[in-house]
Specification:
Strand content: under 5%
Radius of gyration: 19 Å
Order of helices and strands: HHHHHHHHH
Number of helices: 9
Number of strands: 0
Shape: globular
Distance between the termini: 30 Å
Helix content: over 70%
Largest sheet: none
Length: 279
């Protein structure tokens, strides 16, 4: 989420161009959906995850299509489902195996459907979208799989959301020094706010939910703060290259689902690695 340097616009939205009340309402609704699915039947979260990532895949394929890049949606969605299932019920090796199989399916699908013109361009884009977000989202299924998987997923999501909230508040109140030209509204002060919020939330939740050490949660939080910002910047540069503001319009005040998944998917692998090492 981009930060602003001050205030709100006369229309009631923030100077980031977002409708802040709508964004908060959508965020609370998504949070309720995640918590509700996690703490009823755990596998329901897989359906929520598949739905969110599937929409993100469709948004990316449509955005790439606007620049004449042909990406086959059907095998990507089928591959996404296979990879999530493989990760949850089979583990990391099955996730990797499913990914490799789907890569070859995409290569063959494109070869048989549209001939040679643009083959390298289209297959490269297809594999890119298979990695970002489906392969990375597979690590959410890996987080969910253990007996305490619900708590692991909650920590991961809460710490990543804290990055957005902490960065936004600090950017609005104190932001003066631009972080990068890729996303002009991001500031060093906002990054500092992200780090503080993530470290605090990570230390609290890891000690409470996992009976872990404060330093373990703080380390997870610090890493998430940096990588969530990197995720935002990666999506920003994708949108700049494609010449679009948002990847979708599904979520009022947020844009598309990929505009919310960007920071989540880039933090998944290191969070999973640290959780696996610590617990």
């Amino acid at each position: 989420m981009d930060e602003s340097t001050a205030g709100t616009s006369p229309s009631g939205g923030s100077r980031t161009g977002r409708n802040l009340p709508a964004a908060i309402a959508v965020g609370l609704g998504l949070g309720a959906l995640v918590i509700g699915s996690l703490y009823t039947v755990k596998e329901l979260f897989l359906l929520v995850l598949a739905g969110a990532v599937g929409v993100g895949v469709v948004e990316l394929t449509q955005a790439f299509g606007s620049r004449g890049i042909k990406v086959p949606t059907v095998p990507l969605l089928g591959g996404m489902v296979a990879m999530l299932a493989a990760a949850y019920w089979g583990g990391p090796v099955w996730l990797l195996g499913a990914f490799v199989v789907v890569v070859f399916v995409l290569l063959i699908w494109r070869m048989l459907s549209d001939g040679t013109d643009g083959y390298v361009r289209d297959t490269t884009a297809s594999v890119f979208i298979l990695v970002y977000p489906p392969l990375l989202a597979g690590f959410a299924a890996l987080l969910l799989a253990p007996g305490d998987g619900r708590d692991r997923v909650v920590i991961f999501i809460a710490v990543t959301v804290a990055s957005d909230i902490g960065g936004y508040i600090a950017g609005v109140l104190f932001g003066k020094h631009q972080l990068t030209v890729i996303s002009p509204k991001k500031t060093w002060e906002g990054l500092a706010g992200s780090v503080i919020a993530c470290v605090a939330v990570g230390a609290w939740l890891v000690s409470w939910l996992m009976d872990g050490q404060l330093w373990q949660g703080a380390l997870i939080g610090a890493l998430v703060a940096v990588l969530a910002t990197v995720g935002d910047l990666i999506e920003s540069i994708i949108k700049r290259d494609l010449g679009i503001k948002d990847l979708g319009t599904l979520l009022p005040g947020h844009g598309g689902l990929m505009d919310r998944l960007d920071s989540l998917v880039t933090t998944l692998v290191p969070v999973w690695l640290l959780m696996t090492l610590f617990f």
